[in-house]
Amino acid sequence: MRSFTNSTLLGEQHLSSFDTFKTLNIKFQNIVKKILFELELIGWDPLVRNGLRSQQQANKNKKAGSGAKNSLHLYGLAADIVPADHCDPQMYDQADPQFWEDLASIAESHGLRAGLRFKKRDRPHIDVGWQNKQEYS
Ligand SMILES: [Zn+2]
Question: Which contacts of 115-123 are long-range, i.e. CB under 8 A and separated by 24 or more positions?
Fold first, then answer.
């Protein structure tokens, strides 16, 4: 099994995932690390696809119809986690739906919000919740 922290076993995809991971708020990183580890333990190969996002990028996404203009990604307090073999948005529908379920329930067990449960479903998305933002500054 691949270990997220063992760089000798990481492919290019995983190295870019690690770079993205490092853009996250340091306290949030510790939680995301646990979530990735727990997903690996049950046999998934998760990647961090999006971390910190600039306001410029958020505005662009909003215009393109993906993502919110005001997002916890702007603070490094949200991450998008995807299965390595279905890592692009156009592949999410083909991914094993159990991955999204496991991601959501593990994230929630760490007190995070899961985009899978949002009214406007955002399967890979997890964040700390607006009411907890101050705890991370
Ligand atoms: Zn997101």
Answer: 115/80, 122/67, 122/80, 123/92
